[in-house]
Amino acid sequence: MVAKLLIKNGFVYDPLNGVDGEVMDIAIENGKIVEDVSGSDVKVIDASGMVVMPGGVDIHSHIAGSKVNSGRALRPEDHYGDYEPRRPGFRSGVGYTVPSTFTIGYRYVKMGYTTVFEPATPMLKQKHTIEELNDIPILDKASFPLVGDCWFVLEYLEEGKLKECAAYIAWLLKAIKGYALKIVNPGGLEAWGWGRNVEGLDDQIPGFSLTPRELVRGLCRVNKMLNLPHPIHVHANRLGRPGNYTTLIETMDCVRDLYEGDKPVIYLTHCQFNSYTGESWIDLGSGAAEVADYVNKHPHVLIDIGQVIFSEATTMTADGPFQFQLHLLTDNKWINADVEAESTAGIVPFRFRRKNYVHAVQWITGLELALSIKDPWRMFLTTDHPNAGPFTEYPRVIAWLISRRAREATIKRVNGRAIRRSILESLDREYSLYEIAVITRAGTAKALGLESKGHLGVGADADVAVYDINPRELDISRDYRRVRRAFRRAAYTIKAGEIVCVNGELVKNMEGSIYWVKPSISSDLEESVVSDIRRKFREYYTVEFENYLVGEEYLPRSVAIEVEGGV
User: Fold this and answer.
1) Is there a contact between 57 and 445 (Cβ–Cβ < 8 Å)?
2) Is 460 helix (H, G, I), strand (E, B) or coil?
3) pLDDT at 303 over 70
4) pLDDT tens digits for 410-426?
5) pTM greater than 0.70
6) Exposure of 128 in the CB half-sphere (CA atoms within 13 A)
7) SS3 348
8) Using alpha carbons only, what angle is made at residue 435 by residues 430 and 439, rounded to the nearest 5 degrees?
9) Which domains does the chain have, with CATH numbers?
10) Strand ranges for 95-231 from DSSP E
Protein backbone atom coordinates (compact mmCIF):
# COMPACT_ATOMS: atom_id res chain seq x y z
CA MET A 1 0.00 0.00 0.00
CA VAL A 2 1.24 3.49 -0.91
CA ALA A 3 0.33 5.60 2.11
CA LYS A 4 1.83 8.83 0.75
CA LEU A 5 1.90 10.00 -2.84
CA LEU A 6 2.91 13.26 -4.50
CA ILE A 7 1.89 14.05 -8.09
CA LYS A 8 4.25 16.83 -9.12
CA ASN A 9 4.12 19.58 -11.73
CA GLY A 10 1.04 18.44 -13.64
CA PHE A 11 -1.39 20.69 -15.50
CA VAL A 12 -4.32 20.37 -13.10
CA TYR A 13 -7.94 20.62 -14.23
CA ASP A 14 -10.17 20.70 -11.15
CA PRO A 15 -13.37 22.58 -12.08
CA LEU A 16 -15.09 22.22 -8.69
CA ASN A 17 -12.21 24.24 -7.24
CA GLY A 18 -11.87 26.58 -10.23
CA VAL A 19 -8.47 25.23 -11.29
CA ASP A 20 -8.00 25.50 -15.06
CA GLY A 21 -4.71 24.00 -16.22
CA GLU A 22 -2.50 25.45 -13.47
CA VAL A 23 0.81 23.70 -12.79
CA MET A 24 0.35 22.26 -9.32
CA ASP A 25 1.27 19.40 -7.02
CA ILE A 26 -1.37 17.02 -5.67
CA ALA A 27 -0.57 15.44 -2.31
CA ILE A 28 -2.19 12.19 -1.12
CA GLU A 29 -2.10 10.44 2.21
CA ASN A 30 -4.15 7.45 3.40
CA GLY A 31 -6.50 7.59 0.45
CA LYS A 32 -7.36 11.29 0.70
CA ILE A 33 -6.16 14.53 -0.89
CA VAL A 34 -4.14 16.52 1.67
CA GLU A 35 -2.33 19.86 1.78
CA ASP A 36 1.14 18.35 1.65
CA VAL A 37 3.14 15.22 2.35
CA SER A 38 6.73 14.76 3.45
CA GLY A 39 9.15 12.09 4.49
CA SER A 40 11.27 9.39 2.92
CA ASP A 41 8.23 7.17 2.32
CA VAL A 42 6.59 9.54 -0.16
CA LYS A 43 6.26 8.08 -3.67
CA VAL A 44 6.60 10.79 -6.32
CA ILE A 45 4.93 10.78 -9.74
CA ASP A 46 6.50 13.31 -12.09
CA ALA A 47 3.52 14.61 -14.09
CA SER A 48 5.48 17.33 -15.88
CA GLY A 49 3.90 17.96 -19.27
CA MET A 50 0.84 15.90 -18.37
CA VAL A 51 -2.81 16.64 -17.57
CA VAL A 52 -4.09 15.83 -14.08
CA MET A 53 -7.83 15.46 -13.45
CA PRO A 54 -10.05 13.89 -10.78
CA GLY A 55 -10.94 10.28 -11.51
CA GLY A 56 -13.80 9.97 -14.01
CA VAL A 57 -17.37 9.69 -12.66
CA ASP A 58 -19.84 8.05 -15.05
CA ILE A 59 -23.41 8.94 -14.11
CA HIS A 60 -25.27 6.54 -16.45
CA SER A 61 -23.85 3.23 -17.65
CA HIS A 62 -25.58 -0.17 -17.65
CA ILE A 63 -22.90 -2.29 -16.00
CA ALA A 64 -24.71 -4.70 -13.66
CA GLY A 65 -27.92 -6.59 -13.06
CA SER A 66 -30.22 -9.10 -14.67
CA LYS A 67 -30.61 -7.28 -17.99
CA VAL A 68 -26.85 -6.92 -18.42
CA ASN A 69 -26.31 -10.58 -17.64
CA SER A 70 -29.10 -11.54 -20.05
CA GLY A 71 -27.40 -9.39 -22.69
CA ARG A 72 -24.21 -11.37 -22.22
CA ALA A 73 -26.09 -14.63 -22.73
CA LEU A 74 -27.97 -13.27 -25.76
CA ARG A 75 -24.79 -12.24 -27.58
CA PRO A 76 -22.08 -14.91 -27.71
CA GLU A 77 -20.87 -13.19 -30.88
CA ASP A 78 -20.04 -10.15 -28.72
CA HIS A 79 -17.33 -12.11 -26.94
CA TYR A 80 -15.01 -12.94 -29.83
CA GLY A 81 -11.76 -11.09 -30.44
CA ASP A 82 -12.08 -8.68 -27.54
CA TYR A 83 -10.85 -10.11 -24.25
CA GLU A 84 -8.79 -9.37 -21.16
CA PRO A 85 -6.08 -12.00 -20.64
CA ARG A 86 -5.65 -13.66 -17.28
CA ARG A 87 -2.48 -12.78 -15.41
CA PRO A 88 -1.32 -12.80 -11.79
CA GLY A 89 -3.68 -10.73 -9.67
CA PHE A 90 -6.20 -10.16 -12.48
CA ARG A 91 -9.02 -12.19 -13.98
CA SER A 92 -9.67 -12.86 -17.63
CA GLY A 93 -12.82 -11.50 -19.25
CA VAL A 94 -14.62 -10.94 -22.53
CA GLY A 95 -17.17 -8.73 -24.18
CA TYR A 96 -17.27 -5.62 -26.38
CA THR A 97 -20.71 -4.11 -25.79
CA VAL A 98 -21.55 -6.19 -22.70
CA PRO A 99 -18.24 -7.02 -21.02
CA SER A 100 -17.98 -9.39 -18.09
CA THR A 101 -17.86 -7.87 -14.61
CA PHE A 102 -14.09 -7.88 -14.13
CA THR A 103 -13.56 -6.55 -17.64
CA ILE A 104 -15.84 -3.58 -16.94
CA GLY A 105 -13.75 -2.50 -13.98
CA TYR A 106 -10.45 -2.96 -15.79
CA ARG A 107 -11.48 -1.03 -18.91
CA TYR A 108 -12.93 1.92 -17.01
CA VAL A 109 -9.77 2.20 -14.92
CA LYS A 110 -7.56 2.13 -18.01
CA MET A 111 -9.38 5.28 -19.18
CA GLY A 112 -8.96 7.04 -15.82
CA TYR A 113 -12.47 6.40 -14.47
CA THR A 114 -12.93 5.48 -10.82
CA THR A 115 -16.70 5.77 -10.14
CA VAL A 116 -19.59 4.39 -12.24
CA PHE A 117 -23.34 4.27 -11.52
CA GLU A 118 -25.78 1.63 -12.79
CA PRO A 119 -28.91 3.65 -13.66
CA ALA A 120 -31.74 1.07 -13.74
CA THR A 121 -32.42 -1.99 -11.63
CA PRO A 122 -35.72 -3.70 -10.77
CA MET A 123 -36.03 -3.81 -6.99
CA LEU A 124 -36.99 -7.49 -7.07
CA LYS A 125 -33.66 -8.25 -8.78
CA GLN A 126 -31.48 -5.92 -6.72
CA LYS A 127 -29.64 -8.78 -5.01
CA HIS A 128 -28.39 -9.86 -8.44
CA THR A 129 -27.33 -6.28 -9.20
CA ILE A 130 -25.49 -6.02 -5.88
CA GLU A 131 -23.68 -9.30 -6.53
CA GLU A 132 -22.43 -8.02 -9.88
CA LEU A 133 -21.47 -4.62 -8.46
CA ASN A 134 -19.47 -6.42 -5.79
CA ASP A 135 -17.77 -8.39 -8.56
CA ILE A 136 -16.67 -5.30 -10.53
CA PRO A 137 -13.18 -4.47 -9.26
CA ILE A 138 -11.60 -1.14 -8.30
CA LEU A 139 -14.55 1.12 -9.17
CA ASP A 140 -16.93 2.71 -6.68
CA LYS A 141 -20.51 2.01 -7.74
CA ALA A 142 -24.22 2.49 -7.01
CA SER A 143 -27.59 1.61 -8.55
CA PHE A 144 -30.90 3.37 -9.21
CA PRO A 145 -34.07 1.35 -8.48
CA LEU A 146 -36.85 1.48 -11.10
CA VAL A 147 -39.64 3.05 -9.07
CA GLY A 148 -41.67 4.75 -11.82
CA ASP A 149 -44.16 1.98 -12.60
CA CYS A 150 -44.02 0.20 -9.27
CA TRP A 151 -47.52 -0.60 -7.98
CA PHE A 152 -46.77 0.78 -4.52
CA VAL A 153 -45.85 4.17 -6.01
CA LEU A 154 -48.76 4.16 -8.47
CA GLU A 155 -51.31 3.35 -5.75
CA TYR A 156 -49.99 5.88 -3.25
CA LEU A 157 -49.94 8.66 -5.85
CA GLU A 158 -53.34 7.70 -7.23
CA GLU A 159 -54.79 8.05 -3.72
CA GLY A 160 -52.98 11.34 -3.10
CA LYS A 161 -50.90 9.82 -0.31
CA LEU A 162 -47.71 11.74 -1.00
CA LYS A 163 -46.33 11.36 2.51
CA GLU A 164 -46.90 7.61 2.47
CA CYS A 165 -45.27 7.41 -0.96
CA ALA A 166 -42.24 9.27 0.37
CA ALA A 167 -42.10 6.91 3.36
CA TYR A 168 -42.23 3.91 1.00
CA ILE A 169 -39.38 5.32 -1.09
CA ALA A 170 -37.32 6.05 2.03
CA TRP A 171 -37.88 2.49 3.27
CA LEU A 172 -37.12 1.05 -0.18
CA LEU A 173 -33.77 2.82 -0.62
CA LYS A 174 -32.65 1.58 2.78
CA ALA A 175 -34.10 -1.91 2.30
CA ILE A 176 -32.46 -2.66 -1.06
CA LYS A 177 -29.50 -0.24 -0.84
CA GLY A 178 -30.42 2.02 -3.75
CA TYR A 179 -29.12 5.50 -4.54
CA ALA A 180 -31.60 7.48 -6.68
CA LEU A 181 -35.08 7.25 -8.21
CA LYS A 182 -35.27 6.00 -11.80
CA ILE A 183 -38.37 6.52 -13.96
CA VAL A 184 -38.52 4.88 -17.39
CA ASN A 185 -41.23 5.68 -19.96
CA PRO A 186 -43.53 6.80 -17.13
CA GLY A 187 -46.75 4.78 -17.22
CA GLY A 188 -45.60 2.86 -20.28
CA LEU A 189 -44.13 -0.08 -18.38
CA GLU A 190 -47.36 -0.79 -16.55
CA ALA A 191 -49.18 -0.44 -19.88
CA TRP A 192 -46.80 -2.97 -21.43
CA GLY A 193 -48.00 -5.55 -18.94
CA TRP A 194 -51.25 -5.35 -20.90
CA GLY A 195 -49.55 -5.27 -24.32
CA ARG A 196 -49.96 -1.51 -24.59
CA ASN A 197 -47.98 1.72 -24.22
CA VAL A 198 -48.66 5.37 -23.43
CA GLU A 199 -48.27 8.09 -26.04
CA GLY A 200 -47.67 11.08 -23.81
CA LEU A 201 -47.81 12.70 -20.40
CA ASP A 202 -51.59 12.96 -20.25
CA ASP A 203 -52.63 9.42 -21.16
CA GLN A 204 -54.22 7.39 -18.40
CA ILE A 205 -52.05 4.60 -17.04
CA PRO A 206 -54.00 1.31 -17.49
CA GLY A 207 -55.54 0.15 -14.23
CA PHE A 208 -54.89 3.45 -12.42
CA SER A 209 -56.57 6.85 -12.29
CA LEU A 210 -53.19 8.46 -12.88
CA THR A 211 -51.29 9.99 -15.79
CA PRO A 212 -47.56 9.96 -16.53
CA ARG A 213 -47.49 13.69 -15.78
CA GLU A 214 -48.91 13.10 -12.31
CA LEU A 215 -46.45 10.24 -11.79
CA VAL A 216 -43.41 12.34 -12.71
CA ARG A 217 -44.57 15.31 -10.64
CA GLY A 218 -45.42 13.10 -7.67
CA LEU A 219 -42.01 11.43 -7.59
CA CYS A 220 -40.32 14.79 -8.07
CA ARG A 221 -42.13 16.01 -4.94
CA VAL A 222 -41.16 12.84 -3.08
CA ASN A 223 -37.53 13.34 -4.10
CA LYS A 224 -37.63 16.88 -2.72
CA MET A 225 -39.38 15.80 0.49
CA LEU A 226 -36.64 13.26 1.18
CA ASN A 227 -33.87 15.65 0.10
CA LEU A 228 -32.22 12.92 -1.97
CA PRO A 229 -28.80 13.80 -3.38
CA HIS A 230 -29.72 13.26 -7.07
CA PRO A 231 -32.81 14.55 -8.94
CA ILE A 232 -35.34 12.09 -10.34
CA HIS A 233 -33.57 10.29 -13.18
CA VAL A 234 -36.02 10.15 -16.09
CA HIS A 235 -36.11 8.24 -19.37
CA ALA A 236 -38.91 10.14 -21.13
CA ASN A 237 -41.90 8.74 -23.04
CA ARG A 238 -41.76 8.05 -26.79
CA LEU A 239 -38.09 7.08 -26.86
CA GLY A 240 -36.65 6.75 -30.36
CA ARG A 241 -39.78 8.02 -32.14
CA PRO A 242 -39.94 10.75 -34.80
CA GLY A 243 -41.23 14.01 -33.36
CA ASN A 244 -40.50 13.05 -29.75
CA TYR A 245 -38.55 16.23 -28.90
CA THR A 246 -41.84 17.90 -27.95
CA THR A 247 -42.54 15.16 -25.38
CA LEU A 248 -39.03 15.59 -23.93
CA ILE A 249 -39.49 19.34 -23.52
CA GLU A 250 -42.96 18.82 -22.06
CA THR A 251 -41.49 16.38 -19.53
CA MET A 252 -38.84 18.90 -18.52
CA ASP A 253 -41.43 21.63 -18.25
CA CYS A 254 -43.95 19.67 -16.19
CA VAL A 255 -41.83 20.05 -13.03
CA ARG A 256 -40.52 23.56 -13.65
CA ASP A 257 -42.71 25.05 -10.92
CA LEU A 258 -41.15 22.68 -8.35
CA TYR A 259 -37.72 24.27 -8.77
CA GLU A 260 -36.50 26.24 -5.77
CA GLY A 261 -33.12 27.72 -5.01
CA ASP A 262 -30.40 26.35 -7.25
CA LYS A 263 -30.85 22.57 -7.00
CA PRO A 264 -32.06 20.95 -10.26
CA VAL A 265 -35.21 18.86 -9.87
CA ILE A 266 -35.11 16.58 -12.92
CA TYR A 267 -32.42 14.70 -14.85
CA LEU A 268 -33.30 13.58 -18.39
CA THR A 269 -31.10 10.80 -19.62
CA HIS A 270 -29.79 9.78 -23.08
CA CYS A 271 -31.59 12.79 -24.55
CA GLN A 272 -30.29 12.12 -28.05
CA PHE A 273 -32.86 9.31 -28.27
CA ASN A 274 -35.65 11.76 -27.34
CA SER A 275 -34.70 14.77 -29.48
CA TYR A 276 -36.06 14.03 -32.96
CA THR A 277 -38.26 16.07 -35.27
CA GLY A 278 -40.32 14.66 -38.13
CA GLU A 279 -43.37 12.49 -38.53
CA SER A 280 -41.74 9.34 -39.94
CA TRP A 281 -38.33 7.74 -40.48
CA ILE A 282 -38.24 9.37 -43.91
CA ASP A 283 -38.29 12.95 -42.60
CA LEU A 284 -36.61 12.27 -39.25
CA GLY A 285 -34.46 15.17 -38.14
CA SER A 286 -32.59 16.55 -35.17
CA GLY A 287 -34.57 18.53 -32.60
CA ALA A 288 -31.40 19.27 -30.64
CA ALA A 289 -31.63 23.01 -31.23
CA GLU A 290 -35.10 23.20 -29.67
CA VAL A 291 -34.13 20.98 -26.73
CA ALA A 292 -30.89 22.89 -26.13
CA ASP A 293 -32.77 26.19 -26.23
CA TYR A 294 -35.09 24.95 -23.47
CA VAL A 295 -32.22 23.63 -21.35
CA ASN A 296 -30.26 26.87 -21.78
CA LYS A 297 -33.21 28.87 -20.47
CA HIS A 298 -34.24 26.63 -17.55
CA PRO A 299 -31.77 25.78 -14.76
CA HIS A 300 -34.01 23.14 -13.16
CA VAL A 301 -32.92 20.55 -15.79
CA LEU A 302 -29.84 18.33 -16.14
CA ILE A 303 -29.27 15.97 -19.08
CA ASP A 304 -26.83 13.50 -20.57
CA ILE A 305 -26.50 12.96 -24.30
CA GLY A 306 -26.34 9.20 -24.98
CA GLN A 307 -24.01 9.78 -27.93
CA VAL A 308 -24.22 7.28 -30.77
CA ILE A 309 -21.01 5.52 -31.77
CA PHE A 310 -20.90 3.94 -35.21
CA SER A 311 -20.33 0.42 -33.97
CA GLU A 312 -22.03 -2.59 -32.47
CA ALA A 313 -24.41 -1.86 -29.60
CA THR A 314 -26.67 -3.86 -27.34
CA THR A 315 -29.86 -1.98 -26.59
CA MET A 316 -31.20 -2.78 -23.13
CA THR A 317 -33.80 -0.85 -21.23
CA ALA A 318 -36.76 -1.19 -18.90
CA ASP A 319 -38.75 0.36 -21.76
CA GLY A 320 -40.26 -2.97 -22.83
CA PRO A 321 -42.65 -1.59 -25.49
CA PHE A 322 -39.81 0.30 -27.20
CA GLN A 323 -37.68 -2.83 -27.34
CA PHE A 324 -40.53 -4.83 -28.86
CA GLN A 325 -40.89 -2.22 -31.60
CA LEU A 326 -37.12 -2.26 -32.20
CA HIS A 327 -37.27 -6.04 -32.50
CA LEU A 328 -40.03 -5.73 -35.12
CA LEU A 329 -38.14 -2.97 -36.93
CA THR A 330 -34.83 -4.84 -37.15
CA ASP A 331 -35.93 -8.48 -36.96
CA ASN A 332 -33.02 -8.96 -34.56
CA LYS A 333 -33.22 -11.42 -31.68
CA TRP A 334 -35.03 -10.12 -28.63
CA ILE A 335 -35.42 -10.71 -24.90
CA ASN A 336 -38.53 -9.51 -23.08
CA ALA A 337 -39.15 -9.59 -19.32
CA ASP A 338 -41.92 -8.56 -16.98
CA VAL A 339 -40.95 -7.99 -13.35
CA GLU A 340 -44.00 -8.59 -11.19
CA ALA A 341 -45.65 -5.40 -9.91
CA GLU A 342 -42.56 -3.35 -10.70
CA SER A 343 -41.07 -3.05 -14.18
CA THR A 344 -40.40 -4.52 -17.61
CA ALA A 345 -37.27 -4.95 -19.71
CA GLY A 346 -36.13 -5.70 -23.24
CA ILE A 347 -32.84 -6.41 -25.00
CA VAL A 348 -32.13 -6.22 -28.75
CA PRO A 349 -28.69 -6.28 -30.46
CA PHE A 350 -28.10 -3.41 -32.84
CA ARG A 351 -25.50 -1.84 -35.11
CA PHE A 352 -25.24 1.86 -35.92
CA ARG A 353 -24.01 2.43 -39.49
CA ARG A 354 -22.52 5.64 -40.88
CA LYS A 355 -24.33 5.46 -44.23
CA ASN A 356 -27.75 4.75 -42.72
CA TYR A 357 -29.80 7.96 -42.78
CA VAL A 358 -31.56 7.40 -39.43
CA HIS A 359 -28.36 6.34 -37.65
CA ALA A 360 -26.56 9.41 -39.01
CA VAL A 361 -29.34 11.66 -37.70
CA GLN A 362 -28.96 10.04 -34.29
CA TRP A 363 -25.20 10.65 -34.29
CA ILE A 364 -25.77 14.26 -35.35
CA THR A 365 -28.43 14.85 -32.70
CA GLY A 366 -26.17 13.91 -29.78
CA LEU A 367 -23.34 16.16 -30.93
CA GLU A 368 -25.70 19.05 -31.66
CA LEU A 369 -27.04 18.78 -28.11
CA ALA A 370 -23.55 18.76 -26.61
CA LEU A 371 -22.37 21.68 -28.72
CA SER A 372 -25.53 23.78 -28.31
CA ILE A 373 -26.06 23.55 -24.54
CA LYS A 374 -24.04 26.42 -23.15
CA ASP A 375 -23.45 25.28 -19.56
CA PRO A 376 -21.28 22.14 -19.36
CA TRP A 377 -22.34 21.69 -15.72
CA ARG A 378 -25.78 20.66 -16.95
CA MET A 379 -24.90 18.31 -19.85
CA PHE A 380 -22.86 15.14 -19.37
CA LEU A 381 -21.01 12.69 -21.59
CA THR A 382 -22.57 9.23 -21.91
CA THR A 383 -23.26 6.68 -24.61
CA ASP A 384 -26.03 5.15 -22.50
CA HIS A 385 -23.69 2.14 -22.50
CA PRO A 386 -24.29 -0.19 -24.25
CA ASN A 387 -27.36 1.28 -25.97
CA ALA A 388 -25.66 3.79 -28.29
CA GLY A 389 -22.24 2.16 -28.07
CA PRO A 390 -19.76 0.90 -25.46
CA PHE A 391 -18.27 3.13 -22.76
CA THR A 392 -14.82 2.33 -24.11
CA GLU A 393 -15.55 4.79 -26.93
CA TYR A 394 -15.76 7.83 -24.62
CA PRO A 395 -12.36 9.01 -25.89
CA ARG A 396 -13.80 9.11 -29.41
CA VAL A 397 -16.68 11.32 -28.19
CA ILE A 398 -14.18 13.56 -26.39
CA ALA A 399 -12.30 13.98 -29.67
CA TRP A 400 -15.50 15.02 -31.46
CA LEU A 401 -16.23 17.57 -28.75
CA ILE A 402 -12.77 19.15 -28.54
CA SER A 403 -12.12 19.24 -32.27
CA ARG A 404 -14.10 20.46 -35.23
CA ARG A 405 -11.53 18.68 -37.39
CA ALA A 406 -12.43 15.38 -35.73
CA ARG A 407 -16.11 15.97 -36.47
CA GLU A 408 -15.35 16.89 -40.08
CA ALA A 409 -13.30 13.72 -40.55
CA THR A 410 -16.33 11.65 -39.50
CA ILE A 411 -18.84 13.83 -41.40
CA LYS A 412 -17.08 12.91 -44.66
CA ARG A 413 -18.00 9.27 -44.04
CA VAL A 414 -21.60 9.83 -42.84
CA ASN A 415 -24.86 9.80 -44.82
CA GLY A 416 -24.81 13.01 -46.85
CA ARG A 417 -28.55 13.70 -46.76
CA ALA A 418 -28.53 13.61 -42.96
CA ILE A 419 -25.62 16.06 -42.84
CA ARG A 420 -27.24 18.47 -45.32
CA ARG A 421 -30.42 18.58 -43.22
CA SER A 422 -28.51 19.33 -39.99
CA ILE A 423 -26.78 22.33 -38.44
CA LEU A 424 -23.80 20.31 -37.21
CA GLU A 425 -21.32 21.71 -39.75
CA SER A 426 -22.18 25.26 -38.70
CA LEU A 427 -21.36 24.60 -35.02
CA ASP A 428 -17.76 25.66 -34.47
CA ARG A 429 -17.69 25.23 -30.69
CA GLU A 430 -14.78 23.19 -29.36
CA TYR A 431 -14.69 22.01 -25.77
CA SER A 432 -11.68 22.86 -23.62
CA LEU A 433 -9.98 20.31 -21.35
CA TYR A 434 -11.56 22.18 -18.44
CA GLU A 435 -15.02 21.56 -19.91
CA ILE A 436 -14.16 17.90 -20.57
CA ALA A 437 -13.28 17.61 -16.88
CA VAL A 438 -16.71 19.08 -16.06
CA ILE A 439 -18.79 16.73 -18.21
CA THR A 440 -16.88 13.58 -17.23
CA ARG A 441 -16.16 14.06 -13.52
CA ALA A 442 -16.79 17.38 -11.76
CA GLY A 443 -20.31 17.94 -13.10
CA THR A 444 -21.40 14.33 -12.76
CA ALA A 445 -20.12 14.11 -9.18
CA LYS A 446 -21.96 17.33 -8.31
CA ALA A 447 -25.17 16.10 -9.95
CA LEU A 448 -24.96 12.90 -7.88
CA GLY A 449 -24.30 14.77 -4.65
CA LEU A 450 -20.95 13.02 -4.17
CA GLU A 451 -19.08 15.55 -2.08
CA SER A 452 -15.84 13.54 -1.93
CA LYS A 453 -15.71 12.78 -5.66
CA GLY A 454 -14.98 14.73 -8.83
CA HIS A 455 -12.48 17.18 -7.37
CA LEU A 456 -8.94 17.40 -6.01
CA GLY A 457 -9.53 19.62 -3.00
CA VAL A 458 -8.27 18.77 0.47
CA GLY A 459 -10.40 16.00 1.98
CA ALA A 460 -11.54 14.57 -1.36
CA ASP A 461 -11.12 10.89 -2.13
CA ALA A 462 -7.72 10.39 -3.77
CA ASP A 463 -9.16 9.28 -7.11
CA VAL A 464 -6.95 10.84 -9.79
CA ALA A 465 -6.32 10.41 -13.51
CA VAL A 466 -3.13 11.56 -15.28
CA TYR A 467 -3.06 11.82 -19.09
CA ASP A 468 0.06 12.12 -21.23
CA ILE A 469 -0.81 15.29 -23.13
CA ASN A 470 0.81 18.71 -22.73
CA PRO A 471 -1.80 21.46 -23.27
CA ARG A 472 0.94 24.10 -23.72
CA GLU A 473 2.73 22.23 -26.49
CA LEU A 474 -0.29 20.61 -28.09
CA ASP A 475 -3.10 22.08 -30.19
CA ILE A 476 -5.82 19.74 -28.90
CA SER A 477 -8.11 20.54 -31.81
CA ARG A 478 -5.50 19.82 -34.46
CA ASP A 479 -3.94 16.89 -32.59
CA TYR A 480 -7.22 15.27 -31.52
CA ARG A 481 -5.95 11.79 -32.35
CA ARG A 482 -3.24 12.13 -29.74
CA VAL A 483 -5.77 13.37 -27.20
CA ARG A 484 -8.02 10.43 -28.03
CA ARG A 485 -5.15 7.99 -27.49
CA ALA A 486 -4.26 9.62 -24.19
CA PHE A 487 -7.81 9.32 -22.86
CA ARG A 488 -7.93 5.67 -23.93
CA ARG A 489 -4.82 4.82 -21.93
CA ALA A 490 -4.29 6.91 -18.82
CA ALA A 491 -0.65 7.48 -17.88
CA TYR A 492 -1.72 6.89 -14.27
CA THR A 493 -4.98 6.04 -12.59
CA ILE A 494 -4.99 6.39 -8.81
CA LYS A 495 -7.89 4.95 -6.80
CA ALA A 496 -8.19 5.75 -3.09
CA GLY A 497 -4.52 6.71 -3.08
CA GLU A 498 -3.35 3.50 -4.77
CA ILE A 499 -1.72 3.45 -8.20
CA VAL A 500 -3.84 0.94 -10.12
CA CYS A 501 -2.92 1.71 -13.72
CA VAL A 502 0.29 2.89 -15.45
CA ASN A 503 0.38 3.72 -19.18
CA GLY A 504 -2.93 1.98 -19.77
CA GLU A 505 -1.84 -1.23 -18.05
CA LEU A 506 -3.26 -2.45 -14.76
CA VAL A 507 -0.69 -2.79 -12.01
CA LYS A 508 -2.83 -3.33 -8.92
CA ASN A 509 -6.24 -4.84 -8.23
CA MET A 510 -8.43 -3.74 -5.35
CA GLU A 511 -12.05 -3.63 -4.21
CA GLY A 512 -14.36 -0.67 -4.72
CA SER A 513 -17.30 0.43 -2.57
CA ILE A 514 -21.06 0.48 -3.17
CA TYR A 515 -22.84 3.73 -2.33
CA TRP A 516 -26.44 3.92 -1.13
CA VAL A 517 -28.62 6.51 0.58
CA LYS A 518 -30.26 6.32 3.96
CA PRO A 519 -33.16 8.79 4.11
CA SER A 520 -34.76 9.81 7.38
CA ILE A 521 -38.21 8.37 8.17
CA SER A 522 -40.21 8.56 11.40
CA SER A 523 -40.59 5.23 13.18
CA ASP A 524 -44.40 5.49 13.33
CA LEU A 525 -44.73 6.21 9.61
CA GLU A 526 -42.23 3.50 8.72
CA GLU A 527 -44.10 0.94 10.82
CA SER A 528 -47.39 1.85 9.12
CA VAL A 529 -45.92 1.72 5.61
CA VAL A 530 -44.04 -1.53 6.20
CA SER A 531 -47.27 -3.11 7.43
CA ASP A 532 -48.90 -2.07 4.14
CA ILE A 533 -45.92 -3.38 2.16
CA ARG A 534 -46.09 -6.77 3.88
CA ARG A 535 -49.79 -7.06 3.06
CA LYS A 536 -49.22 -6.23 -0.60
CA PHE A 537 -46.38 -8.73 -0.81
CA ARG A 538 -48.78 -11.44 0.26
CA GLU A 539 -51.28 -10.28 -2.39
CA TYR A 540 -49.00 -9.49 -5.36
CA TYR A 541 -45.59 -11.12 -5.10
CA THR A 542 -44.30 -14.65 -5.58
CA VAL A 543 -41.42 -14.00 -3.16
CA GLU A 544 -41.51 -13.52 0.59
CA PHE A 545 -41.04 -10.04 2.00
CA GLU A 546 -37.94 -11.14 3.95
CA ASN A 547 -36.28 -12.48 0.79
CA TYR A 548 -36.71 -9.12 -0.93
CA LEU A 549 -34.48 -7.23 1.48
CA VAL A 550 -30.78 -6.60 0.83
CA GLY A 551 -28.98 -6.69 4.15
CA GLU A 552 -25.71 -4.92 4.74
CA GLU A 553 -24.01 -8.31 4.79
CA TYR A 554 -24.48 -8.30 0.99
CA LEU A 555 -22.32 -5.16 0.79
CA PRO A 556 -18.99 -5.88 2.48
CA ARG A 557 -17.65 -2.53 1.23
CA SER A 558 -20.42 0.05 1.30
CA VAL A 559 -20.84 3.75 1.92
CA ALA A 560 -24.22 4.79 3.36
CA ILE A 561 -25.04 8.45 2.76
CA GLU A 562 -27.19 9.78 5.58
CA VAL A 563 -29.78 12.20 4.17
CA GLU A 564 -31.02 15.06 6.31
CA GLY A 565 -34.71 15.93 6.18
CA GLY A 566 -37.12 13.18 5.26
CA VAL A 567 -40.60 12.31 6.52
Assistant:
1) yes
2) coil
3) yes
4) 999 999 999 999 999 99
5) yes
6) 15
7) strand
8) 115
9) 4-54+459-506 (2.30.40.10), 56-448 (3.20.20), 514-562 (no CATH)
10) 113-121, 140-145, 182-184
